[in-house]
Amino acid sequence: MHERLQRWLAERLPAYMLPSRWVLLPALPLTPNGKLDRTALPLPAADRAAWRAAQSDTERRVVQAWQQTLQLDGIGLDDDFFALGGQSLAALQLLGALQQGFELPLTLAELLGALTPAAQAALIDARRAQQPASGIDVARLADHEVDAMLAQLLAQPR
User: Fold this and answer.
1) Which domain holds residue 62?
2) Do 120 and 66 share a structural domain?
3) 60 with 35, same domain?
4) What share of the chain is helix, strand, coil (3-state, %, to 5)?
5) Residues 36 and 86 in one domain
6) What is the DSSP letter of 91?
7) pLDDT 10s digit of each residue in the chain, 158 long?
8) CA-to-CA separations, 106 to 83, 86, 100, in angstroms, rounded
């Protein structure tokens, strides 16, 4: 039944809206007013057997951005953004954090196309590999370093 429902939903919903975990219930819990009692819903069992920790610097920084954005600890490389409670506003916040942290122009479509920290780290690493070497960031150099570089340039024969 789970696979049939998954296929049925996949035909009608975008990939980011598909549930990654399921909890089968005999009935939905209701409030005295007959509305869904969200607080009484059981949490899906976490599948921690497949949990992977960040290995590379890029992966660690992406996981850290996720943890700050979602205000969660223990995020693994294969965790799904929406399964952890992410939503559109959090996606925009994460996009801004990644753009600023990695100094890369990323789009929301790219972010939503890579819904795990592992996929986002791979996207960022691929983007960095495509960027031409930008040289030295003079704004981050100390004054004496800039003076030494200018002296070297002026000393070169023309």
Assistant:
1) 49-132
2) yes
3) no
4) 50, 0, 45
5) no
6) H
7) 678 888 898 899 887 787 767 778 889 999 999 999 988 888 666 554 467 888 999 999 999 999 999 988 889 999 888 888 888 899 999 999 999 999 998 998 898 889 999 999 999 999 888 876 555 666 677 888 777 777 777 776 66
8) 22, 18, 10
